[in-house]
Amino acid sequence: MLYWVFRVIVILVLKLFFRFEVEGLENLPKKTNFIVVANHTSFLDPAIIGAAIPQKIYWVTLRNIYRLTWLRWLMSITEAMPTGSAAERLVYLLNRNKNVGLFPEGRRSFDGKLGDFRRGAALLAIKTGRPIVPCAILGAYTALPRTRKFPRLFVPIKLKIGQPRYLLREFEEVIDDIYLQEGIFKIRNTIKEMLDAG
Asked: Domain residue spans in the chain?
């Protein structure tokens, strides 16, 4: 219940103070749950995606962020999971038709540019057969970069939702590292293209 109340508040704040726009809602899978993957430049990012996507997203959060007292209440409301112990829980949630969200760069960008992606999202997609929904967040770095404690107001923020991508398991029992790397590279390129298009 608190999640949905919080989501409404976030939508209102984003609309009033950041001229929030969403593109590509029609790309969200309608017959299955999914894995959200996005670029990460700001503390605002999970809230932006949560406000845009009507389904609940279960997020993975860096353990040191999870320990911050002023953010702990938010982690509790959103049922976010700390890194390091989340892998089994994510598979469990996906197999029970829940949606999960990851930032495969692993941390917020220092300069607003897209970094390298880790392979965790690709592994989840292959293990569970769920699609990855690539998302590009624009404007969040300008509004609240790592160097600021409070956001700049009236900076336009946009979320672009790309078409879902399936990474299917090969016939072999062991998941090949190269296959994982190729899969996450394609997802990263999709997000980069959306960011470059503005």
From this structure: 2-197
**Residue-wise pLDDT tens digits, 43-98:** 999 999 999 999 999 998 766 665 666 666 666 666 776 666 678 889 999 999 99
Cα–Cα distance for residue pair 59/100, rounded to 1 Å = 6
The whole-angstrom separation of Cα 168 and Cα 127 is 8
**Do the beta carbons of residue 143 and residue 152 sit within 8 Å?**
yes
Contact status, residue 162 vs residue 24, Cβ threshold 8 Å = yes
Q: What is the CATH number of domain 2-197?
A: 3.40.1130.10
Q: Model's pTM, two decimal places? A: 0.90
Residue 119 structure tokens: 């392979």
CB atoms within 10 A of CB 117: 23
Q: 95 — phi, psi (to 5°)?
A: -70, -10
Q: Please list the alpha-helical segments (H only) found in the chain.
A: 2-18, 45-52, 63-66, 69-78, 87-95, 120-128, 140-143, 177-197
